[in-house]
Amino acid sequence: MKQTLIPLLAFAIICFSSCASKDVKYVINGTNAPKEGARVYLIDQARRAPIDSAFVSGGTFTMKGKAEKDAFMSIRIDGITEQFPFFIDGQPVHLDVSVGELTGSSLNNKLSDCEKLNKAAYAEYERVIRVLEELDTLPQEEGEAKVAEYMPTYFAALRKYADFYVGMIEENKNSLIPIAFIEHLPSVVSAADNWNKAAGEQKLDEILAANPRVGGHPYALDLKQRMAASDAQRKQNAERQRSIVGEKFRDLVEPDPDGKSHKLSEYVGQGEWVLVDFWASWCGPCRAEMPNVVAAYEKYHGKGFEIVGLSFDKDKDEWVNAIKEWGMPWIQLSDLKYWETVAAGVYSVTGIPDNLLIDPEGTIIARGLRGEELEAKLSEIFQ
Q: Across all residues in the chain, what is the average pLDDT?
């Protein structure tokens, strides 16, 4: 009996030691926190949920506990937008909230340095974005010319930031540092490569394959799972968008600029051809496309063509000002819920500009008609 029990006990001890070694202690001290009594959260980024919390007292806070070694965490403080990422590696972490500086082990110090470099590089790129946004607010003809002239500068800045971002990750690919930046890697790469989604995903796969600790990290696995779910949802939406042509329109209710609610059925299926136009004042491509829509309205409105604009705006003043500035005299509705607008759900709208062309009986006959395609279809109808 003893001979059997001893090996079993030895096995249990080995197993326990092995299992326990996965968890390490963490000690997090914060100083110079600005808001007394604010709650501080320790967020497990892979689970996207808090695992610990504390309250600010006298400008300081402390959290102690155990977590899985190499877990990717962040500190979030109520009332502060910025989050502070770090890795659990058994070494104490100190956060000076007033300057946003996190220090600890050599790994976390390196991560903090990379965060600073990334913020500086993005700030430089963001200044170019701000100029582009200002040009987009100019009167239409002047704005279009200025934007076209500025686009090479914009794309050069985007390319520079993307090269920095990818370079920073690749320089640190033999450590855990890439974990903190892979979330945005596909979008940064794809945007700089003329929105080539495949290029962004390929670069992510290369980084994950370069280091098994990165590729097999819970955060990386969660990210890939979320990306797969997002792809499945996009495919489902695309199928829904294609299948909607040939169906009867679906009714919805949204307010006009005066706050009065209207049903879409007040205008659709009432004997006229109707273009239901999905747009927003903040949407640059919508602004570029709108002259074509205005021209179609002016040419065919007298022949039985109507437009109903369903805006994805969230600011009423910006919505109303765009209606006037862009010269859109047709019916305009919006619940001002941005991407949560009821129109997005009812018609599976995942990008704008978008539109539906609906016949006099209320059947959707085309979707996404832009520029020459819209003119050609209306010309065919009203010939």
A: 90
In this structure, the number of other CB atoms found within 10 A of the CB of residue 135 comes to 20
**Residue 233 CB neighbours (<10 A):** 11
- For residue 212, CA distances in Å to 42, 174, 206, 209, 236 come to 26, 9, 11, 6, 32
**Nearest partner of 306 among 269, 264, 329, 273, judged by Cα:** 273
Angstrom distance (rounded) from CA 36 to CA 150: 46
How many of the other CB atoms lie within 10 Å of CB of 52? 18
Asked whether the beta carbons of 89 and 24 are under 8 A apart, the reply is: yes
pTM > 0.85: yes or no: no
Assign 102 a pLDDT band (cuts: 50, 70, 90). Answer: very high
Specify which residues 76 forms β-bridges with.
Answer: 41
Give me the residue label for tokens 């679906």: 250
- The pLDDT assigned to 136 comes to 75
CB 244 within 8 A of CB 348: yes
The residues, any chain, with a CB within 8 Å of residue 180's CB and separated by 6 or more, are 72, 85, 111, 114, 115
First to last CA, the chain: 98
Q: In this structure, what are the phi and psi dihedrals at residue 158, rounded to the nearest 5 degrees? A: -65, -45
Q: Which of 83-92, 208-217, 229-238, 294-303 has the lowest mean pLDDT?
A: 229-238
- The SS3 of residue 63 is strand
**pLDDT confidence tier of residue 230, bands split at 50, 70 and 90:** confident
CA atoms within 13 A on the CB side of 112: 18
The larger pLDDT score, comparing residue 20 to residue 112, is at 112
